[in-house]
Design goal:
This protein has 69 residues and is of the alpha+beta class. The protein has one domain. Helices cover 54% and strands 14% of the residues. It contains 3 helices and 3 strands, in the order βααββα. It is globular. InterPro entries: DNA-bd_dom_put_sf.
């Protein structure tokens, strides 16, 4: 496996930096099962796949633009 093929995993703070959505919101969404899918890596660390976050952003944009049309 090439290093470029590896997935990037983001923590809540990284998701905040990427989207501007507060870290607490990411944690809440994970707790209540909303927002992009996340999972636990180890006993306590919750992560999101960067590819999933980017796809979710694209979906949000498409839905928003679709509502405006």
């Amino acid at each position: 496996m090439d290093i470029s093929d590896q997935e990037t995993y983001l923590r809540a703070k990284d998701c905040e930096r990427l989207t501007g959505i507060p870290e607490a919101t990411w944690r809440w969404w994970a707790h209540v099962g909303k927002g992009p899918a996340s999972f636990k890596m180890g006993a306590r660390r919750r992560v999101w796949r960067k590819s999933v976050i980017l796809a979710w952003i694209a979906e949000q944009e498409a839905e928003s633009l679709g509502d405006a049309a």
